[in-house]
Amino acid sequence: MTAVRTVLGDIEPAALGVCDAHDHLFLTSPAMPGPQLDDPAEATERVAGFRALGGEALAQWTPFGMGRRPAEAVAVSRATGVHVIAATGLHQAVHYDAEVLGRLRRGDGLAAFFTAELTEGMIAGDGPGGARTAARAGMIKVAGMFHGLDDHTRWVMAAAAQAHHATGAPIGVHHEMGTAAVDVLGLLHGELGVPARSVLLGHLNRFPDAGVHRELAAAGAYLAFDGPSRAHHATDAWLVDSLVALAAAGHTDQLLLGADTTSPGGGPGAGYLLRTLRPRLIHELGSAAAESVFRANPAGALAAPWPVVS
């Protein structure tokens, strides 16, 4: 059936509700400087604040091996009543120990690892030998490089495409500084056969090239904008203008918004989406368009025809 796969189980897309389509409850890596997201109490408080403003769902794009903490994500969802969609997948190679990547290359391979996390349950901890939890991933997270793709990226995306073809799972993409989205879509959709509507292109606000945005939208992918962020504040001023331009070009039904919280205090968080951005979108585009961005579009982007598991 077509459903959104949350950490508490599958739900009908229409039941997803108001959604932060790209965020992180937990996120850690030795390659990331400064404080990191590793506090369950802080995550619960943050999501409860989002819930108090009318938020009903949150997609955590933290992939395997970066402190995603599936058991704690389940606890946050239960404590707040907010649906949480978790991710399998891998980020850039810099975030992983070479031994971990080597183990994922052996055995049944990376595509089988992703598929099992989507259909059987996510591995606890940040190593492939951890215990399998009951919480299943509902999407695959991959990452491009700055203005290009490297061998690690191509390996991960090839595996993600295989896992997509086995399960229908949507694929969310980190674009470094918002770049290389055309290259990524050319690989996933053009070469590997993933339907464009199953690809969620993230961080596009960080590279506010209107022509590139229109090209990606014309191909049929979902376009995910996030922030604001202390780390990427320079492009915050273009966020609403980019959304308005894409809506004017007929792509309202492909727009996604997320807070993309990556560190404590790194931005105003998921509440900003509803407290500040939603009123601005209603003013600029009307209530129906804002409803699409926060409800209908995430429901479509995160839904998949999951295989029946006996």
Concise account of the structure shown:
The protein has helices at 40-52, 70-80, 98-105, 110-119, 151-167, 181-191, 210-219, 239-248, 270-285, 287-301, and strands at 2-6, 9-11, 19-23, 57-60, 83-85, 87-89, 139-143, 171-174, 199-201, 222-226, 255-258, 303-305.
Notes on the protein architecture:
- By secondary structure, this protein is α/β, with parallel strands linked by helices.
- The chain has a single domain (about 1-305), classed as Alpha-Beta Barrel (TIM Barrel).
- It has ten helices and twelve strands.
- It has helices at about 40-50, 70-80, 100-105, 110-120, 150-165, 180-190, 210-220, 240-250, 270-285, 285-300; strands at about 1-5, 10, 20-25, 55-60, 85, 85-90, 140-145, 170-175, 200, 220-225, 255-260, 305.
- A six-stranded parallel beta sheet has the order 6-7-8-9-10-11. Strands 2-1-12 form a three-stranded antiparallel beta sheet. A three-stranded parallel beta sheet has the order 3-4-5.
- α4 (about 110-120) packs across α5 and α9 (about 270-285) crosses α10 (about 285-300).
- The chain is globular.
- The relative contact order is 0.16.
